[in-house]
Amino acid sequence: MNALAASRKREESLVEGEYALTARNFAKITSFLRDSTGIALNDAKATLVYSRLAKRLRKLGLGDFDQYCQLIETTAGAGERNEMIAALTTNVTRFFREPHHFDHLRQHVAPRIMHAARAGARVRLWSAACSSGEEPYSIALTLLDAIPDVGRCDVKILATDIDPNVLAKARAGVYRDDATSPIPSALRDRWMIRDREGAETTWRICDEARAMVSFKELNLIGVWPMQGRFDVIFCRNVVIYFEEATQIFLWDRFKNVLMRDGRLYIGHSERIDSSAFESDGLTIYKPTHGGMP
Q: Which one of the listed residues 52, 94, 118, 171 is annotated catalytic?
């Protein structure tokens, strides 16, 4: 590219920086992301896309976003497509986020599912978009604290996310001291193990909680290989990144895998505008007309 062409391209860039990110580049990247994951990013997210993907260009030694877009369209770019999705996925989470959900789980759901489990029933909970594990471990700690013998029953938590990088951290189950501050101290002291790594204090999830949780890579708009139905689904602060049609599609899918008396917990900024569910509290929903047996 000659100097004049490079100058013109930089003038077309949506973001000032080391690389030119043109409207055409941005459209190609966001279209691929939407088609692959359901996540829809508008033009206001151009700076976010640039800041997260510029690191990838540097690592790959690419000169501009034209080259990057060409790469992700090729067969050889399959690995980079996964890296791009991971880079553009938001992974904000913390232990016991939206604590009223865990209060509801403890008070209204745990007694029912444990009555069934102690009678020999299979009980399954799903943390969809589990990120680095704080949510499914919060579920496990809640159940362990409410019903200490839960480990002797067939009660398991499926934790899924599209990003393999955060799943690796989740499987490790080790968190900085400050990250565990939302955990009630009685739960942390009983069900987590305090370690020292040099000058840093870390907390490790206990074996009982880890045994309850299985981490799997899963795209929410892709194929769901799970068999059987869930008593509880947590899908929080995820669908806000989807277009309305994708949201409705996802709510219907959740109803199809939820037990008749199951519960769906969603994020504080989300609402279900679908006949599939009715409210059972603040951002807590149950299937309409009974759901599946």
A: 52
Distance, in Å, from the CA atom of 203 to the CA atom of 188, rounded to the nearest integer, reads 8
H or E stretch at 92: none
Task: Determine whether 217 is exposed, middle or buried from the number of CB atoms within 10 Å of its CB (0-12, 13-18, 19+).
Answer: exposed
Please name each of the domains of the chain with its CATH number. Answer: 3-88 (1.10.155.10), 99-290 (3.40.50.150)
- In the residue annotation, 161 being an active-site residue is answered as yes
CA separation for the pair 38, 34 (Å, rounded)? 4
Strand-strand pairing, 277-279 and 174-176: unpaired
pTM assigned to the model: 0.90
Q: What is the pLDDT of residues 1-36, one digit of tens each?
A: 554 445 555 557 888 888 989 999 999 999 999 999
Query: Is 52 annotated as catalytic?
Result: yes
Please report the sign of the dihedral spanned by the C-alpha atoms of residue 103, residue 129, residue 134, residue 53. Answer: negative
